Amino acid sequence: MPTKRFYHESMYQFDQAQPSYWEATAGAPLPDWPALTGDQSCEVAVIGGGFTGMSTALHLARDHGSNVRVLEAGHIGWGASGRNGGFCSVGGTHMSVKRQLRKYGKKQTYDFYQSQIDSIALCKQLIEAEDMDFKPLGHGEWIVAESQSHFKRLCIEAEEMSAHTPIKPVMLSQQEFARAGYEAPHQHGAMLVGPAFGLHPLRYIKGLAKAAAKYGADISPNSEVLRWEKHNGKHRLECANGTLTADKLVVACNGFMPEHLSPALHAYTLPLQSVLNVTRPLTDAELAEYPWHDNCPAINSPHVYVYYRLLPDNRIMIGGRGDTVGHPDGARKTSANIHATFSRLWPKWSHVEFEYSWRGLICFSQNLKPSVSQLPSDKSVYLGFGYHGGGVACATWVGQQLAISINSEKTIEQSHMPAIYKGMPPRFPIPALRKALGRVGLEYYLTLDKLNK
Ligand SMILES: Cc1cc2nc3c(=O)[nH]c(=O)nc-3n(C[C@H](O)[C@H](O)[C@H](O)COP(=O)(O)OP(=O)(O)OC[C@H]3O[C@@H](n4cnc5c(N)ncnc54)[C@H](O)[C@@H]3O)c2cc1C
Q: What is the per-residue pLDDT for 4?
């Protein structure tokens, strides 16, 4: 069992918030929920207060009347959920439609994409029902073509998606995209994939937490689980100042999977760094250089995504992949590389400074699919993870599905969930080489991007 964290320790400082644009605009504070103290018990314990964990708790408390407590090592939204790009879009897997068709067949592929549509609708419904303090922005996600050949490949992808999934992307030529999306020398047209929208991720996770508490869930931030044991058929979780005993356990830690807690959690995940930057507000004159006509989130590379949004206060947010060490020096280099990309994409904005830069962990698995599962060795342990950088909507939906499964007589394998979600992925065969694998994979996909494959 590993004793060390996957990346440099600076990535696991649970008592420190990332210096993000979202933290700077976080809105009203949450109630001052205390950390876990004393010996507590509940029916379902959730480790991790991100979208997966909080959505599970919300749905358990609201729809099933369960007695549930969330233990979060940092503040609510400390993990990827409070620091992502806010693209509420189709995600969850790194598999193409073609590959899914080969592996799961037509019906399961169709059902997976339907679940993605449902997950985006679920987010919207929760934002409205809980009166959250931000507005969804945009009406789809732009996949921007970087070259003529990329545009041709997007046309083929759009045809595949339309033929085999309930999602019907719309292709726009360079001129059409300049009128509907934005104008810039690098764009060669775009594919609009809907439904999708942009949100404020930290306000969204805080909204989920407030709602979960309203329906009766107990929430304990600043409560890192340091030890996990099973005694007399119950899970016993130990934090610095208290213990929690529960009948069932949900591990909702995604890229921050605490592998050191148990060999049962070891080597299922490959956490990768994603880095985000936000500029200062652009002036009207600067914005006029490359007019933008909407707030839809956008990505522009086929494999290693560069992703960006125009924020409501006229800043540009732009993100990309980080290094495979996790040291703060690496983060500074990545941020500089992203500035170089920003300058390449919008040369007339190359003088525009970044005011915010931060990072977090996304989660890959060996079979490139999201996982909703029970531990093979202990069916009272539930997991939802492996969203491959696309977890805003997917993790919210997975939380809802976990709540249903926990209250069902059926196992997850027996449930109606699309097959792609079901079960644990294979473990990485040589766990110690995962970082090297991450490096090789990144280089491979960057090369494909360069070769325009
Ligand atoms: C920079 C960045 C940009 C992204 N952009 C997008 C995007 O635009 N759109 C999109 O769909 N997805 C995006 N993602 C991915 C998305 O944010 C994640 O898939 C999603 O937030 C996963 O939610 P989660 O609740 O499963 O995990 P997390 O939000 O990471 O939560 C896991 C939590 O577990 C807690 N934890 C770990 N160990 C313990 C322990 N021992 N005890 C207690 N708590 C513990 C951590 O503190 C953490 O808060 C991005 C991710 C990053 C990092």
A: 77
Main-chain phi, psi angles of 420, to 5 degrees: -60, -30
Residue nearest to atom 41 of ligand 1 (CA): 225
CA angle 145, 147, 153 (to 5 degrees): 65
Asked, for residue 9, whether it belongs to a domain, the answer is: no
Q: Say what the pLDDT of residue 283 is.
A: 98
Q: Do 141 and 223 lie in a common domain? A: no
Q: What is the pTM of this model?
A: 0.97
CA–CA separation, 40 vs 38, rounded Å?
6
State the distance from the centre of ligand 1 to the C-alpha of 160, rounded, in angstroms.
30
Residues 290 and 350 placed together within one structural domain of the fold: yes
Mean pLDDT confidence for 22-45: 98
357 lines ligand 1 (CB under 6 A): no
Q: Is residue 7 part of a domain?
A: no
* 241 or 445, higher pLDDT: 241
CA 242 – CA 374 distance, rounded (Å): 26
Decide if pLDDT at 302 tops 70: no
Look up the domain containing 347 and give its range: 137-198+272-363
Residue 126 lies in a domain: no
Which atom of ligand 1 approaches the CA of 77 most closely? 49
- In sign, the C-alpha dihedral spanning 170, 174, 179, 183 is positive
Ligand 1 proximity of 244 Cβ (cutoff 6 Å) = no
Residue-averaged pLDDT of the chain: 95
Decide which of 340, 363, 386 is a domain's last residue.
363
Residues 291 and 354 in one domain: yes
198 close to ligand 1 (CB < 6 Angstrom): no
Cα 110 to Cα 165: distance, rounded to the nearest angstrom: 5
Q: Is the CB of 224 under 6 A from ligand 1?
A: yes
Could you tell me the CATH number of the domain that includes residue 321? 3.30.9.10
pLDDT in tens, 93-141: 999 999 999 999 999 999 999 999 999 999 999 999 999 999 999 999 9
* Cβ of 320 below 6 Å from ligand 1: no
pLDDT at 260: 95
Residues 246 and 210 in one domain: yes
- Tally of domains within the chain: 2
- Whichever domain contains 228, its CATH number is 3.50.50.60
Which residues fall within 8 angstroms of residue 246, CB to CB, at 6 or more apart? 41, 42, 43, 44, 45, 69, 234, 235, 237
Q: Strand pairing of 298-299 and 270-279?
A: unpaired
pLDDT tens string 311-326: 999 999 999 988 888 9
**Is the shortest distance between the CB of 101 and ligand 1 below 6 Å?**
no
Q: Are residues 190 and 209 in the same domain?
A: no
Residue 1 has pLDDT above 60, yes or no: no
Using pLDDT thresholds of 50, 70 and 90, give the confidence band for residue 2. low
